Amino acid sequence: MKTSHFLLALAALALATHLACAYDPSPLQDFCVAIDDPKEMLFVNGRFCKNPDMVKAEDFFFSGINIPGNTDNAVGSNVTAVFVDNLPGLNTLGISLARIDFAPYGLNPPHTHPRASEILFVAEGTLYVGFVSSNQDGNRLFAKLLNKGDVFVFPVGMIHFQFNVGKTPALAFAGLGSQNPGVITIANAVFGSDPPINPDVLAKAFMLDKDLVQQLQKKFGA
């Protein structure tokens, strides 16, 4: 009897170990609705793979990360992304890169990457950066003033920002843990959604006057 119990426990442990090691692949897009007819399929989780015999060195190469981005915009920053869209060799590797240029007092507004953590390296200038933890952790702000040569990490999914506090342009490079990390800029998503969120919802959520909400929707919706 004891032997049978031992074998049963051993089998259960083996099954539990197998289930613990089994998991769905991390999503690489915002959503992927299931479809039965393959003729109507448009996208898969990731990209289709090129025939290995057809792969060239150029598939793993990107040029232009040395070129400054245009910061002449409302927030005074520009992100040059090196994702799987412009570097096909990144497919399935789980990494990507971005160059972030800042005008004096330029801001990379509060945003989140739903599929990647980010590590930021300051190449020029001084940046005030930070992220906010989840509701469960009390929405704590972790912020730091970074100078040339400093590094800061933003955990996956956390709302974060970078602000150039100097009178001269600043430059940073970011490594991200996904070939397609995704970007949700908070203000654009909330006030610039298409179609717009009912202003009564936003007025109550942000404790703002409804007229102000509608003004913000016009600004970001445009």
Automatic annotation (TrEMBL):
Belongs to the germin family. It comes from Cannabis sativa (Hemp). Residues 63-214 form the Cupin type-1 domain. GO terms for cellular component: apoplast. Transmembrane segments: none annotated. It comes from the Eukaryota. Residues 1-22 form the signal peptide. This is Germin-like protein. Disulfide bonds join C32-C49. Keywords: Apoplast, Disulfide bond, Glycoprotein, Manganese, Metal-binding, Secreted, Signal. Oxalate binds at N108, H113, E118. GO terms for molecular function: manganese ion binding. InterPro entries: Cupin_1, Germin, Germin_Mn-BS, RmlC-like_jellyroll, RmlC_Cupin_sf. May play a role in plant defense. Probably has no oxalate oxidase activity even if the active site is conserved. Its main location: secreted. Mn(2+) binds at H111, H113, E118, H160. It is found in: Secreted, Extracellular space, Apoplast. Pfam families: Cupin_1.
